[in-house]
Amino acid sequence: MTMRLAFGFSLAAAALAALAFAPFYVGPYQVGLLIGLAGYVTLSSAWALFSGPTRYVSLATVAFFGIGAYTVAALNEILPYPLVLLAAAGVGLGIALIVGLSTLRLAGVYFVIFTFGLAELVRQLVTWYEVNVTGTLGRYIFMSFGPEEIYWQLLALMAATLFVSWCIGRSRLGLALKIIGDDEVVAAHCGIDIARTKLALFALSAVIITLVGAIQAPRWTYIEPGIVFNPTVSFLTLIMALLGGANRLWGPALGAVPLFLLFEWLSANFPDHYSIILGLLFIAIVFILPGGVLAFVERALAHSKRVTGNAERVREPGTAEARQ
Amino acid sequence: MKSASRRRLRDVFLSAGAVMTVLVGASAHAQERETIKIGYAVSKTGANAGGAGITTIPNYQLWINDVKEAGGLELPDGSKLPIEVIEYDDRSSAEEVVRAVERLATQDEVDFILPPWGTGFNLAVAPLFDRFGYPQLAVSSVTDKAPEFVERWPRSYWMLGGGEDYTDALATLLAEQRDAGTINGKIAMASVADGFGIDLVTAARASFEEAGFETVYDKTYPVGTSDFSPIVNEAATTDADTFVAFSYPPDTFALTQQAQVSSYNPKVLYLGVGVGFPVYGEDKPNAEGVMSLGGIAPDNESNMAYRKRHKELTGQGPDYWGSVITYASLQMLQEAIKRVGLDRDKVSEELSNGTFETVLGETKLEDNQLRTLWWTGQWQDGVFVGVAPQGRSGASKVKLPKAAWQAQ
Fold first, then answer.
1. Residue ranges per domain, chain A?
2. How many CB atoms lie within 10 A of CB B186?
3. Is the interface score ipTM higher than 0.90?
4. What CATH architecture applies to the domain A27-323?
5. To bridge A66 with a disulfide, which of A194, A229, A254, B359 should be the other Cys (CB 3.0-4.6 Å)?
6. Nearest chain B Cα distance for residue A45, angstroms
7. Does B222 contact A34 at a Cβ distance shorter than 8 Å?
8. Inter-chain contact A271–B89, Cβ cutoff 8 Å?
């Protein structure tokens, strides 16, 4: 067990090192791709951190993503960069706590609708503030560093997210979350502080998402609410996490990487038919892989092992989202 | 637990493998020069598609068609090379436009990149154009910071002026009318809560105050507003002779409609983007006298010929503001290539310093900015003519007060 663990860790470290050195060997276009990949792997892993075990489907991703970007735009000229990132994390945490305290008692579709509305609310608040207080809607971010630095920051954040996710999966907190996801009443009777557990995870997930927005913002030079609060970010994150399997450590990454590459390939080769092909693909995914890629692979493996057919039913944890 | 850790291992392998596949992906290879590659990424779908589909895309198509018909782009030695066009849709996403331009510059290795549509998107790609050494003829971006941008990105060109240019011109024009006794010194103002509306209304407040006007009504409405009766009716209760709205196309049409429904006919009606669309005023008697940004000189024959060809080829007339400038910027690029060849540094230098004959007439940039523009226009007899600056040749005289609404 520990041997395997050590081996797994050294493998992950080697992969991380290879990725970190990648900008020295590839062109600027590939660095752009890697930024997108690292960004979406982090977003969907952070999303799954909270939404995977609790099964609370959140569409608030872009609210926090945009808050991060706006904090950088507002502060990049008055604070040194590390402090700007810290401030972004702080703002994200503060808002996540307020939102979490007031809404985590909602469940099911009410929570989904609320989180979708939250993104719009934050966007309108920012717009209102800019219109009435600062009198200018666009903000400029002029940073002295290039895409490579953005990539390394995202990569570090991605590694940290996966590590935190791995730790939580093995901890009492992770177990508590699983019980909450299965049945809140049982969880309450087990003595789990449901509200506090959910709030902690929601806040952690939100802070990571805020940081992704903050780190990526300098890539756009100019931001306005329409650019950073683009709801597509929320939907893509959700689809990626569900495709891979939101309950597994590597699930969101396995969903994000192929989907992101697919989007890129489609927009490079079929710029005029992108949306049509994408829609058809999503339908195909829902029909063929309703439980996510990992669950599908596991089921296929289990099936080949137990061809006799009298084995116990294969568990499909990934279908939980489909049921919601 | 055993199988779990094995699973985790396998996952590491899988994801690392997936990432490596990308890295090893296609790398471009050099080839014999048989064509000149022109690339662009523009919003063909999404929120920006409306604007891009009027000002940018048809003019790119028209120019590409013109170049193809002429047998290609001419080089200094008189030879011609055909163009190969690579087109991407940025889907109105800032991240997408950034990656598409990176792809054009480093994967497709195009010779020149045409800019995307919109202020925000032109700024998003400006550092990339600069880093990869491409000249950026940014047309569809209204910005007061153009001089700063030119300093930061010496190969960037800003062709549509800044908010202050438009509002100063309007304030000057209105002040003359006030001093002549045509209108009073009060203004009612509305603006859309988006980049364009806010930048212009902020500039307008300063311009109007400086010109001694009193703003008696000043309201900002959210993007997507569909009911303009409160704004129009409240403006109608003021005693302002001038109504100014820095609006977007759907709002511009709705405001015009609402003003007619409410029988609100201010002596000066100035609206934002959309007034310059052919569909707003050509063969529409009610557009008579409505004012906005942009305009054309009706006696400019090359511009009129361009408008005719645009309509023939694309099936729609060009708008009266950015379209002709988009086409002129492409003519400048074409002429610069003819003079100095495909070296991008030399082309950039030529664009900065050269004088060009375009559909606008003789065109020369000052500090990488196009400054001879029509700041204010007005619909007169089915043509949206330029009325400010008055000193410019081809300027029409502004007709105020605006005509009464006609029964529909």
1. 27-323
2. 17
3. no
4. Orthogonal Bundle (1.10)
5. A229
6. 13
7. no
8. yes
